[in-house]
Amino acid sequence: MPPATAATATPTLPVPLPVPAAPPRHRELPWEQARTLAQGAPRPSAARTVPLADAVGLTLAEALRTPQPLPAFDTAAMDGYAVAGTGPWRIRGAVRAGTVWEGALGAGECVEISTGAQVPAGTRAVLPVEAALAGADGMVAGPVPPPGRHIRRAGEDAPAGTGLVPAGTRIGPALLGLAASCGHDTLPVRPAPRVRVLVTGDELDHAGPPGPGRVRDALGPALPALVAALGGESRGVRHVRDRPAGSLAAAVHGARDTEVVAVTGSTSAGATDQLRGLLAEAGARMVVDTVACRPGHPMLLAELPSGRWVVGLPGNPYAALVAAHTLLGPLIAGLCGRALDPLPRVPVTGSVRPAPGLTRLVPVTWYGTGVRITAGHGSAFLRGAAAGDALAALPPDWTEGGPAPLLSAG
Ligand SMILES: Nc1nc2c(c(=O)[nH]1)N[C@H]1C(S)=C(S)[C@@H](COP(=O)(O)OP(=O)(O)OC[C@H]3O[C@@H](n4cnc5c(N)ncnc54)[C@H](O)[C@@H]3O)O[C@H]1N2
Ligand code: MOO
């Protein structure tokens, strides 16, 4: 009997391959709701106390208070003479910033005084040196200044005990200076959440011009900078291969020294897109699973049973940027105990393909008191975002010239 061949074998019906159960498809969340959910999802991380020099960019964990009045004493605001009563005035001495003239002035007396020095008791006002005529006889003449002129009163800016800046404020240069003015050397802060970026995509090259059919990785270089701008601490970028399956799961679960893992690519439905499957397998809680916006709608936010957060950013570079602003920024804010910044609304001009029911995120450039849509904002293209000043979130019912909330481009 000849051996059976494919041609002569009894035909059999193809056995259907088991179809992996598709994770339940959630309704796309409105864009604003996705941001709010991402900010509200985590508990703020524990506060710690750090020296002022280490606090920039972190978030105040408690309101900043001043234990002493600001300024701490009645202070000369001009170089000149601290005068008492009406002139002419007899010069009794001099007081420089940082020193104290212990006496008290009587009517018709004055001391030479520097800007920033404590004004002596009895001072009526400071007569600026430009308005004063000092004679060789030790007397000063000049117009009689109104009481209090050129004196900063103790506590004029804030009395002792005043709450100056609320908890939840991101710490910038002015706040550091203010804290020092109050006499603080340290601040209670919530630390920046540590974010590991995992870039997926076997088609990606990571240096130089890409080879034939290859794509230069745009997100590895972009995301650490965006993480820092959003208030996170970048813990570096790892490139994860699509094959073998399981490598992404290992990288996600292996990011133990972080609070957040941001995965780029792998959010869609393709053969190599592993992210949703691995989250389902790990028993993750989906907080956001697709958003009613363009681009970036396959984005997601999930919490692993370990408490670590996973943000899924679509592979298309501009879509990833939009998704990072929509989910990663608010998540970082929530972990730091910061509220979402209220977004300014400004008129937007320019045209965009209609997308009924969806929020459109477009790069914009300031133009007078409004903004203009910047060219080059297909989901795969970064030209518009790179050249623009901000992103505008055009609401579903937006029409040309109408207002839209603005996000800083980061
Ligand atoms: N059948 C479907 N296909 C796609 C859908 C869908 O719903 N059904 N959604 C489309 C949309 S929208 C997007 S966005 C992408 C999202 O895809 P992934 O997140 O799975 O990402 P990839 O497929 O890996 O890549 C998409 C695209 O972006 C390029 N890419 C990826 N990473 C980088 C990088 N680091 N730097 C530069 N470019 C990158 C990649 O080469 C692809 O061209 O899915 C659509 N398809
Ligand atoms: O939403 Mo995709 O993010 O359009 O390219």
TrEMBL record:
Requisite cofactors: Mg(2+)
The protein's name in its UniProt record: Molybdopterin molybdenumtransferase
Source organism of the structure: Streptomyces erythrochromogenes
Reactions it catalyzes: adenylyl-molybdopterin + molybdate = Mo-molybdopterin + AMP + H(+)
Function, in words: Catalyzes the insertion of molybdate into adenylated molybdopterin with the concomitant release of AMP.
EC number(s) given by UniProt: 2.10.1.1
Annotated SUPFAM superfamilies: MoeA C-terminal domain-like (SSF63867), MoeA N-terminal region -like (SSF63882), Molybdenum cofactor biosynthesis proteins (SSF53218)
Domain MoaB/Mog: 196-334
Domain of life: Bacteria
Annotated region described as Disordered, given as residue ranges: 1-25
Record's keyword annotation contains Transferase: yes
Keywords noted in UniProt: Magnesium, Metal-binding, Molybdenum, Molybdenum cofactor biosynthesis, Transferase
Ranges of compositional bias, category Low complexity: 1-12
PANTHER family named in the record: GEPHYRIN, MOLYBDOPTERIN BIOSYNTHESIS PROTEIN
Pro residues: compositionally biased ranges: 13-23
Pathway it works in: Cofactor biosynthesis; molybdopterin biosynthesis
Assigned protein family: Belongs to the MoeA family.
